[in-house]
Specification:
Two copies of one chain form a homodimer. By secondary structure, the first copy, chain A, is of the alpha/beta class. The first copy, chain A, is built from 14 helices and 14 strands.
């Protein structure tokens, strides 16, 4: 296998971050751009919080809490304890080390840096060589329309209410005015780009807000390189998070086939886990790999499987024929 | 001795906070208002930091670090450690519990609360019954004109440079537009007010910015109740902080007499430490007490001495005769 010259990965939080780590472990640092969802971002107690960006950066830096997949290892909770004692809002788990990152980000943004620039500084300070960029520098905020609780801010739905309200549809506030960030545009325009990977992230909460960024979905559709996705659904369940629950609320049975449909207009191949091999046998829209990343080796192995899949698609000249021109199921 | 009906104390940080604690220990909660310097306040990493207000509130709440006199007992430093690791500004010592207070204050101020209201909420949450108010709700910022380092923000001078630059003069930015806070005005207008105490705080860095608030010095001068000050200079030295150093830089020999001169237009009596009794013997501008507050008993004892002094001044009818009508030495 020839190492691909440049890869663009689209990632949400935990699952995406793990594959991003795998890709970073098998690709030279300058051959990978990880574009990250910002729909979850919010300001809390005056701190600019970017959960997915921080999860990706912490994971790549090796300072993430590996058990939970987000937040810092060796975290302390002095501020949160005191916020509780003060009767202040404490539903969002702000660790002390995490707060330092938010404070630095606030300072950088206040000094006029874009979110891309702030992210780059934070990543560099944490020793991350891979290029991690927000999918857009513009404010894009996911709002969750629920069956019984009205319209909720993302973190209100996701953290405060632990995804309990039934999801009816999603709204990506600011998306139509949001342009892809310079790092995304640069990767897409790079003649050396050899493939695009949609990480195994929640298609509704993590990938859809990225696809909602003005022109991005069309750019993926028009890309001259193969685009693949790794299904976050394994054996009818999500490895982590509410993907399967949300699918059921939207009236679809959780399966890799749903992922393929959601991304049908721009994805050439969806990689499903070995346990779902029988489901997709003979279907050219799918490839099979071990997608459950239990450890570092598992992450690197899945990354290699993704690169092999991209290479195979290039070799087969599959790009134009495999893409469907229907626009795929959109959220809500 | 009859307990005075209401006392207004003007306080800076550590020394003032200790006398405020003493006053709170001997007066009913509703008989004491502590007005606190805000000239040291600044925004740092986006956090609204009010060092003197927090020192007074922490001291009254019994959660202060007693050895250093400021900051929290049982403090942790996760955020600061991480700020250092990130290469962010870490010269200002932000403890994790302390940060929680700044985050709550930011939220309250962003929600439209005045600094008085935010301070009241924080004090209440920490169990402080005494009324602690900023001397003004307006932005008032002390700027330090130095001999060789130009004009410095207060914390840049005080913390970052540890008061090393020679002080030439002080500027209280925003003071002329700053009105006394509602709590100060209410205390001054209270018919039950029986005395005003200037705590043993740095006369230049802590008391002068309070006196610079529009109309406040004139109100102290015009007050119909006795006004006393406790000298922060003991045996030619300051108990804590750079008061003596600054006096020398301004060309005066550190002594209680300088304090009396600085406050001569509105103070009826300066309480000096017993070790300086000989210096002030026979001078009606002074009274003697044990002013070094080594423990809780020392704080309460000094508070009682202050109340006795106020009572004596009332009994003697000394208020009008003792005040001098010259305006006193002003800073710089």
């Amino acid at each position: 296998m020839t190492a691909p010259s440049r890869v663009l990965a689209l990632s949400g939080g935990v699952g995406g971050a793990r594959l991003a780590w795998g890709l970073a472990s098998v690709l030279p640092a300058d051959k990978l751009t990880v574009a990250v969802n910002v729909g979850d971002d919010f300001e809390h107690l005056g701190l600019p919080i970017c959960p997915d960006l921080d999860t990706v950066v912490y994971t790549l830096a090796g300072v993430v809490n590996r058990e939970q997949g987000w937040g810092r290892a060796d975290e302390t909770w002095g501020t949160l304890e005191e916020l509780r004692a003060l009767g202040a809002e404490s539903w969002f788990l702000l660790g002390d080390r995490d707060i330092a990152v938010h404070l630095l980000r606030r300072q950088l943004l206040s000094a006029g840096c874009s979110l891309s620039q702030a992210t780059q500084t934070i990543a560099q300070q944490l020793g991350v060589a891979t290029r991690v960029v927000p999918v857009t520098d513009a404010p894009l905020r996911t709002r969750v329309h629920t069956a019984g609780d009205g319209v909720l801010g993302f973190q209100d739905y996701f953290v405060r209410r632990r995804c309990a309200p039934a999801l009816k549809s999603l709204e990506f506030e600011g998306a139509s005015a949001a342009q892809p960030s310079p790092g995304v545009l640069e990767a897409l325009a790079d003649p050396a780009l050899s493939g695009i990977i949609v990480c195994p992230s929640n298609p509704y909460l993590s990938v859809a807000p990225m696809l909602a960024v003005s022109g991005l979905r069309a750019a993926l559709r028009a890309a001259r390189v193969p685009v693949i996705a790794v299904s976050p659904i394994v054996g009818g369940q999500a490895i982590k998070g509410p993907t399967a629950k949300i699918m059921r609320e939207l009236g679809v049975e959780p399966s890799a086939a749903v992922i393929a449909e959601l991304y049908s207009d721009f994805v050439d191949c969806v990689i499903v886990d070995e346990c779902d091999a029988a489901q997709v046998a003979g279907d050219p829209r799918f490839a099979v790999a071990h997608t459950v990343m239990r450890d570092d080796d598992g992450r690197s192995a899945l990354a290699r499987a993704c690169l092999q899949c991209l290479e195979q698609l290039r070799t087969d000249g599959r790009r134009s024929s495999a893409r469907q021109i229907t626009s795929g199921i959109t959220c809500g």
